[in-house]
Amino acid sequence: MPTVLGNRIMLTGRELPGRWLNPVADLPVKLPPMMSRSGYPVTQRELEPIFPKPLIQQELGTGRRHFPIPQPVKDAYLDWRPTPLIRARRLEETLETPARLYFKFEGGSPSGSYESNTAVPQAHYVAETASRTIVTGGAGGLWVSAIGDAASRFGLTARVYSVREPGTSNAWGGAAARVWDVDVEASPSEKTRVGRHRLQTSGPDAGSIAVALAEAYEEATLREEVKFAMPTLLNFTALHQSVIGQEAAKQLSAVESGPDHVIGAIGAGSHFAGLIAPFVKERVAGNDVRLTAVEEASTPSLSRGVYAYDAADSEGLMPSVQMYTVGRDYDPPGVLNGSMRYHGVAPVVSALYRERHIDAVAHSQVEAYSAGLIFTRAQGIILSPSSMYTVKEVIEQAMRCKSESREAVILFSITPSVETERSVYDPLLEGTMQNRRLEESRLSRSLSIIQQQQQSE
Q1: pLDDT tens digits for range 400-428
Q2: Alpha carbon distance 438, 26 (integer Å)
Q3: What Rg do the C-alpha atoms of the chain give, in angstroms?
Q4: What is the dotted CATH code of the domain comprising 116-230?
Q5: How far apart are CA 274 and CA 91, in angstroms?
Q6: Cα(453)–Cα(66) distance, rounded to whole angstroms?
Q7: Which CATH class is domain 73-111+236-456?
Q8: SS3 letters across 214-238
Q9: Comparing C-alpha atoms, which of 309, 403, 445 is closest to residue 33?
Q10: Which among 28, 214, 266, 306 is least buried, having the fewest CB atoms inside 10 angstroms?
Q11: What would the pLDDT profile of 218-243 be if each residue is shown by its tens digit?
Q12: From CA 353, how far away is CA 40, in angstroms rounded?
């Protein structure tokens, strides 16, 4: 049973979930299949050179509601899980709101974030194959740390193509790469055909997570001894993140009848999918729990995108999934939070949005960082940029409860900042941060490409 210690609600290691909960199984509609570049549904055989078989089974087995967590993964999870659920009483007092705010603190992992929830099982499954190297793409130190720690646990080497810091030859996450002995390549790089082409056509600052993933995927297709790891978007990453939601639901049940509102920021959306996983079935059944995804205003994939097949990477090398997307050709403005500049949203989240079971809101970075500062000064936790967007919407809803004299239970998840050289709030406090406007011409051009592709199929 959960233990309530002041504002914290704790679980013991024995209460760690033994199974991942698949939110796809609770969808009110059948999820459209992943499609190969040939235009046909992807088969297990096509994916086997890239992913270990258990991940493929998790990806394609969308009707199965539970998958067992392997014992080596559970053993690794126990280093930081279960994580605490915390009542944000000081934030409630600061806002003078009748809402009750609970956050899941995902900062205790080796990466300092929820990224380790999927990095560990992916590395475990790779270690069970003949491959000894795991390659991936990303945009910073959290995923670099997560994959580096996971690889070291299972005797693998790791390479990450990470988005290049603007105006430099350095990759985001370079410091973390040194800690975990990860080979990091600044993307776009000279190492791959994709990287060289992007450098020649758009220059060194034209990187994005989608480009980095394309470079990593290209390498995995050319080297038999390498397997590819995906940080987000795919069904198996949402599955692995379900440990967050399962723990939160059990912890919250010790003090509340359940959440009225669950809020989470989305880049590609797997963390949000994991947080809401236990509540999808009751939402689809008619329960009035609200599920809200928070986007960066300059990359509004849900609220302004189209529901279409699109690839996870910038070059279309990877299989396509049906999702809300602003198009892999969309070149998003350079907001500070690179993880929220992704062009698409996880198929499970996209399907729920299409069926009107989740809401989507968009916030700009100045407002998000300002809200994050309010949270930090109230709760004493310096937030990661993604968490600031979550907190912005949490505060919006808490203040709405105040104006309506209405109680509500709001559940959300946060990760702390892992920046040590500078405060993540420095650009805001120095007055140099600006919102980056959505460039309508870029969006229109990218959406038109997607729509033309749909018409030609």
Answers
A1: 999 999 999 999 999 998 664 455 667 78
A2: 34
A3: 20
A4: 3.40.50.1100
A5: 25
A6: 35
A7: alpha beta
A8: HHHHHHHHHCCCEEECCCCCCHHHH
A9: 309
A10: 28
A11: 999 999 899 999 999 999 999 999 99
A12: 25
